[in-house]
Amino acid sequence: MTAATVAGSNYADDILTQSVYTRQTTDDLQKYAYAAQFIDVEMETLTKSMTKNIKAMDGARGGTGAVAEAYKQLGVSVTNADGSLRNSNEVYWETIDALKGIPNETERDVLAMQILGKSATELNSVIEAGSDTFKAYGDEAVAMGAVMSGDQLNALGAFNDKLATLTAGMDGLKNSAAMIALPFLDTLATDGISVLGEFSKGIQEANGDVGKMADVIGGTLSNIVGLIADKLPEFVDMGVEMITSLVEGVVDNLPTIIDAALQIIMSLVDGLIELLPMVVEGALQIVAS
User: Mean pLDDT by 10-residue block, N- to C-terminus, for the chain (289 residues)?
Assistant: First the structure.
């Protein structure tokens, strides 16, 4: 259930974000996402072409230019009687259906690129399907419960934001925890630099003499072991302090932990007792059959 909730929150956040950028309703986006699975088109390709259509409509509202002529050639009007722009979704699907009716693939490709910014090749499955097929899949999505309400999306989206905050907090916690061992490791690294420097210098000065290089390697290992041995008590003391603090924390919270564990166990037992008659009845039916 936790995994399903997290996945649902990611889905909701994606739909809400796409709705802002594409100016599509969350209902429509979910219907398109459902239909896209069967029509073999990427949602990004679909939504980008819809956004491009809005820009094309704005450029064609004056009635002149290549884009305006493309709409006219398809028999699609971009403005209402009062000169205001029509609903972009209606214009988009009218454009798709009009493109579907053009038998000349080259001409269709040119018009698609002028208006939607995508070649007919990229939108071919959408054009071949047409608006009726998308509407049918959208209705099916609603019937299947694949379209979440705005309230549901907002609730999951808010939870997704909290998860993001929690993740950022955990990152901050990890960064803060890095400070615990920093003094020890910083000293170790500082001394280690000089050891490695001596090692590199010794190997260079050996001039390929295997015996001298062996002495350098042996001396370096000895220095490293000695360095670790010198710093080990400090590291152990730090570890003991951490473990002691952890144990003290567990002991201080032991009553709460025990109480929570008992509640969990009792809830599980109560649930099993409630289900027992159903389990027994089902077992008897299986045996009887």
Answer: 89 90 89 92 90 92 89 94 91 94 90 85 89 94 92 92 87 76 73 77 82 82 78 76 81 86 89 85 81
pLDDT 10s digits, 51-107: 999 999 999 988 888 999 999 999 999 999 898 999 999 999 999 999 999 999 899
Structure tokens at 136: 């049918």
For residue 96, what are the CA distances in angstroms to 53, 106, 133, 263?
Answer: 11, 15, 12, 60
